[in-house]
Amino acid sequence: MRNKLKIEIDHFNSQPRNFRILIFTNLVYAFVLPVIDTFVAAYIMRNTHGDITKVVIYQLTIYTGIPLTFLLNGWLLKHFDIRKLYSAGMMLSGVSMIVMMSLKELDVVGIGVAGMIMGLSFGFYWANRDFLALSITNDNNRNYYYGMEMLFYTIISVLIPITIGLFIDSQISDNQKHTAYIIITGVVFLITVLASIVCFRGTFKNPEQKKYIFFKFHPLWYKLLALATLKGLAQGFLVTAPAMLILRFFGNEGALGSAVSIGAVIAAGIMYVLGRISKPSDRIKIFAAGLILFAIGAVVNGVLFSQPGVVIFILLLLIAKPLLDLAYFPIQFQVIDIVSKIEKRSEFAYILNHEAGLYVGRFSGAATFLIMARYGSAEIALRYAVIIIAGLQLCSIFVARKIIQQGKEFFHQEVPVNMKVISEVLQAPL
After folding, report:
1. Which fold has domain 12-202+216-409?
2. Which of 238, 245, 251, 416 has its Cα between 20 and 30 A from that of 72?
């Protein structure tokens, strides 16, 4: 066991320094993400008497702020170090939570302001994180990179939700629980500062200063945008759906933390092993497995719509989500590698445009939920919207397969001339 562990450590240390720094930065910030994803939604529900529409409105304002910030980030990269913008994104997440906790009443305006700030945070964070991950990895080590990220994230997501849930539940009165949320917010802000310090240890470079905004792209890129839209459908409200379901059926944050943590134990090991041993050719299989698990969980939740159904759904979702990310990001980056060379554009132009595809999907997913909740009921929305979206998500398998096949064709179009030369050299007499 010790020898195997040493082999894995040596393999990690053999990666470029910036590769390791970015992993460590995201490792520290991973302590914040479960709080944002789960307990902010729980806080809104607790303080609005279970009004799930306000949770979705909060998500919509976040998703509106993200693409706007991607645009702003592209301009700011001409004037500021990418590390500063990346750090600003992480720290703004703490600021957003501070704004949320300072509101005396969680009305639509206050929730919207907090959501827009969180959208700014995510915009700066993801725009720069995606570019850095693209620039410091190649197609051969991207599975490993995301396997490492998912390993750390899933392990941390075991510890943080259950710890925070028990901490909140240990408080008796509503005022004490509110104070507990304030303490959590303070800790989150300190962690974002620490993550920023780690980030500045890297020697990351800004993207080349070229034009970032385009309206016409290569056909392969449009296929990826379709895949991004399908991915965004699920993100539209699934970030907060687990919190809404658990608080509905279990009624407290302690149960929320426990349920979210169970599946992460299994997912952590799966993600590392897959990231370590899988090849680029395995991505479509990993992607399909994640989508199928998500669909099964959605159907079980819709049919049972009970405590056991919610637990099964969340367990499968916790395994499905990192599987999807492990496959999706390398597919996205491979397409960017190809089309950026064909069209001679900055990679950041595609990262920026990709966010537009995600936004269309996110908005459509959240709107579907709100319409079903408004003209039907919250139960109908929580029960059936996820099934509809999971069904649409299965189409992603066919889109991803076409992208990978077309990507191989473009790769081989550039290779044959060189291969012919190599072949002639090998066959020539010495």
Report:
1. Growth Hormone; Chain: A; (1.20.1250)
2. 238
